[in-house]
């Protein structure tokens, strides 16, 4: 009798313990890697010979979700070239819970070694990342002039830029040329009136002059973001301007750049292809209609090539114009396109071992300089890399058009938006949407945006 | 002997109940208690701070006007979703137990939406509302459908209600069918002999005798529709201009987008209390309607 009791009890104990053991297995592994970080530092100082033979596994957290598979294949190539380093991809879904996933990895003490994140997110978590100051000179040699400066966060180099994007008024060359009956020179459009005159010609041919994508990220982040970036061509001055708006010393309602930009939006609204229902905001449909010539212009950036490139029956030639903000051609912004390095590679400094960090540094350099990687990033993904002496040429006509502006130094640096709170685009984007459908007038819009800024003061 | 039995029972319980108890503790109870603790601190992923704040976060919740507008919006949403889903499911179940040909097939058909995840369902209906219906509306000149429902604040609300109800109906219908099956045929026959027609039979016999099913259905649909998140995300993303944000959506935005974890978590606790109070009181009162056969 007693024996059977013990037997049953034993079975139960084994069962429960095995459950607990299954859970604790991961913990011990983590502890081991955490604990090993200290001795290995001394190891590094005394000699690196034992290190090269050691297997290193690093993880790569990717928020450029549209190219998850491109990265995955690239990591296999890296493994072939560097057999002792394994790079594991942590993918995120497009438009899905990307930041939430990053936060939960960080909070559980299990952060990814390398991250590919928005510059603004990296800035918010800046204490968690490795300072890359020792690497800065090397990347400055490799990169286009100003590219590294553009990626600095509060003056510090913690993220390596790998792609550059520009946005503005993309145009479908065929539709524009059919409307004006000849070759189109983008340099002829330098003011808002120039643009409206062109729109009238396009409208006369029965095509919609412009497509405004009614999503909060396009209106809030990209369109409204211009207003702060156009204050001056210096990011620090623009940051100060936003601080002034927060504490009430600067007023958007009398601000020239802000009002100029919104005056242009009033004009664009009249010619909008989605005039009857501006907020539908189907990104694929809007891109396709533009690419097939239903609309001549599209307020968007070169990233839309990812959708437009593979389309059947699309037009082939596209270009870009800046968003004009006044009728004075010399005003800053009328001949400059918005340009940014939206995503940066950064290395974790909160839970990774020095071996992992070293491996990550080598890996990031390989991602920037190797032909295989450039083929994947430029060739397959259609992105532009802000570096010199690239071995691969871009197939994306939109980024080529932007590259011309970059080469002439005609860009608007929108780096100021990296320092904005994470909910800025969503909160003010809602106000921009109301303005787009005339639920708010200019005064109401200005008030809602300023109220938002005031609510963030001191945070 | 009894001692042995107790231990054996305990062993059997551990063997079969142990895993679920363990899972319940690991993924429900412990996170819930830890979450409660977090509402009392200034916790932030970025700095990993754990300073004790007391009830400061809850004070902030009551200052967050948007949260209460959205809680009211959620209450309206729950009311209409629960009402539409339950009435439709009740009559569907009634129709599908009358014994005509093909009712098995139809039952499966009505149940299917419940098997599709909220996200997929949301994208599916988004396409319907913003592409298909406007196309049809324009073609036949139906002004109701000419613009997308999802870009209008009022119609956006009804879009959410319709899709959620559509998702719940199949599930609730199955429970109602099970409830009707338990109504004994002889009771119904006796009622027929006494001269009761269809409607009287529903009102006097079927409704009271399937009260347990009604209680369960209303309870399930209330708690599920209060916590709708995925459908909200996929269908409207809270838009246009945050007018269709349900409470859970607002909580997630607050915590993960605005980085105000403590306040977001406190709002989740307030939401939990509201759901618990409403669901339990309705179950208490409806239970009184149950009758013995």
Automatic annotation (TrEMBL), chain A:
Keyword annotations: Signal, Transport
Signal peptide: 1-21
UniProt-annotated stretches for the region Disordered: 28-50
SUPFAM superfamilies: Periplasmic binding protein-like II (SSF53850)
Keyword Repeat listed: no
Residue spans crossing the bilayer: none
Annotated PROSITE patterns: PROKAR_LIPOPROTEIN
Acyltransferase among keywords: no
UniProt-listed InterPro entries: Bact_solute-bd_prot1, SBP
Family the entry assigns: Belongs to the bacterial solute-binding protein 1 family.
Protein name: Carbohydrate ABC transporter substrate-binding protein (CUT1 family)
Automatic annotation (TrEMBL), chain B:
GO CC terms, sorted: plasma membrane
Localisation: Cell membrane
Family: Belongs to the binding-protein-dependent transport system permease family.
Domain ABC transmembrane type-1 residues, every copy: 71-282
Superkingdom of source: Bacteria
Transmembrane segments: 12-38, 77-96, 116-137, 157-178, 205-227, 268-286
UniProt entry keywords in alphabetical sequence: Cell membrane, Membrane, Transmembrane, Transmembrane helix, Transport
UniProt xrefs under InterPro entries: ABC_transporter_permease, MetI-like, MetI-like_sf
Main location: membrane
Matching SUPFAM superfamilies: MetI-like
Topology within the bilayer: Multi-pass membrane protein
CDD domains per record: TM_PBP2
A Gene Ontology BP annotation from the UniProt entry: transmembrane transport
Name of the protein in question: Carbohydrate ABC transporter membrane protein 1 (CUT1 family)
